[in-house]
Amino acid sequence: MTKETSIHDDSERDDLATQTSAADDTPATKASAENQHGPRFGKVALAFAVTLGLLAGVGVFTFGYGKGASYLSNNPQTCVNCHAMQDHMDSWQQSSHHHVAVCNDCHLPHDAIGKWVTKADNGFFHSLAFTFGGYKDPIQIKPRNRRVTQSTCVDCHKDFIHNLLPTTDGADMQSCVHCHADVGHAGR
């Protein structure tokens, strides 16, 4: 390549850059750029960020005010965060199981996934009932939780009750708490 060709190529590049720069300044190009990331985008992004911040703030406040971290523990005191459960706590403290089992031992499945699914399910519905006062007094156990309680009775006492369990799948079995209602909660 000669020196003259090189100068000619540089000149063409400069002209092309000037033309491109001038083309970028046209009203159509500016409008297109504003539509792509203009003031409207900024307003939507700001509204989204404010909404997200408010929801996160309310969530953190509610979790703290409702002692949410306590629900991740195995502490029976967690159950009386809601005043509606105080009678159940008092009756458990008088029961024969008080020294051998806490609330989670009887009211949550013993497998890890079932335990956390049930905690999430119960936590959601307990918080709704607590917030809006939508529970029966005295509080009633849901059918699903009644099945969980039956399963935990059998799980803990399987060595003693093996002969009482149905021998065929699908056979009916009397609920343990039908006869032993005072075991977990005395005087209920």
From TrEMBL:
Region (Disordered): 1-36
GO aspect biological process, one term: anaerobic respiration
Domain (NapC/NirT cytochrome c N-terminal) ranges: 46-121
InterPro entries hit by this protein: Cytochrome_c-type_ET, Multihaem_cyt_sf, NapC/NirT_cyt_c_N, NapC/NirT_cytc_sf, NrfH
A GO cellular component annotation in the UniProt record: plasma membrane
Location relative to the cell: Cell membrane
Keywords, in A-Z order: Cell membrane, Electron transport, Heme, Iron, Membrane, Metal-binding, Transmembrane, Transmembrane helix, Transport
UniProt entry tagged with the keyword Magnesium: no
MF (Gene Ontology): electron transfer activity; metal ion binding
Transmembrane regions listed in the UniProt entry: 44-65
Compositional bias annotation for Basic and acidic residues: 1-16
Family under the similarity heading: Belongs to the NapC/NirT/NrfH family.
Name used for this protein in its record: Cytochrome c-type protein NrfH
Underlying gene: nrfH
